[in-house]
Amino acid sequence: MDEGSGINLIKNSSRIVFLTGAGVSTASGIPDYRSMTGVYQGIEEPEYLLSHTCLMREPEKFYTFVKQLYHQTARPNIIHKKMKELESAHDVRIISQNIDGLHDQGESQHVVNFHGSLYDCYCMTCQKNVASEDYLISDIHENCGGRIRPNVVLYEEGLSSEAIETSIEWVEAADLIVIVGTSFKVYPFSGLIDYRNPNSQVLVINNEAITLHHPHEFIQESAETFFSQL
Ligand SMILES: [Zn+2]
Asked: How far is the C-alpha of 140 from the C-alpha of 152, rounded, in Å?
């Protein structure tokens, strides 16, 4: 499908679900943290550093690593902004694999951070919420001496059932599902598409084709380029 047809498809849809991935954040200067050429290069296995085991057994190592994933100066880019703007004429829902909280920062109304957000932190001892700025200063909670962690889904941890249920509801109700900036390989996120209404349409905007066992339209383009035209 060409860019113009993709734009029309979005403009003519009423209930739109965006399924977003790392390609939506790169324009904000956030590297794809799953890419080995990114922040993982030259250090220990990310699957371990971002695991529940590492957090429990070697919390200092976990903390040192996770702090590198914060990009406090990153701001929403044209993609986040256009998705927000679409809310004025469409019912827009966003389900994101990104943990950078940029859709929230862009003030989109309906966002599920499927893998949690780095900017949502809490104390594991007293369960109180803690500002991410405070977590970046120390992972020890001043009030109780407990350890603070970000509310992101670590390796070995399960997803929030609320995130899953809300996401399924949204996908079922959508008349257009737009997969943006993701290779769509991470399960169960990629399994959400199985809940789509058979009458809905699926549009993929990505640099590379993705494997998808559902009929879909594909625009081979960076999300940034596409959304700039929208
Ligand atoms: Zn505490």
From this structure: 18
Helix (H/G/I), strand (E/B), else coil: 227? helix
pLDDT of residue 46: 82
Which residues lie near ion ligand 1 (Cβ < 5 Å)?
Answer: 123, 125-126, 141, 144, 146
User: For the chain, how many residues are written?
Assistant: 230
Beta bridge partners, 176, equal 16, 201
Tell me if residue 115 is catalytic.
yes
User: Between 224 and 35, whose confidence is greater?
Assistant: 224
Indicate the SS3 state at residue 6: helix
User: Which of the following is catalytic: 80, 90, 103, 115?
Assistant: 115
Ligand 1 centre distance from Cα of residue 150 (Å):
13
| Residue 123 annotated in ligand binding | yes
CATH 1.10.10.410 fits 1-30+75-115+158-230, yes or no: no
Query: What kind and span of H or E run contains 79?
Result: helix 78-85
- Residue 71: pLDDT band (50, 70, 90) is very high
More confident residue, 64 or 38: 64
Residues 19, 187: contact at Cβ < 8 Å?
no
Whether pLDDT at 36 is above 60: no
Task: Quote the mean pLDDT of the chain.
Answer: 94
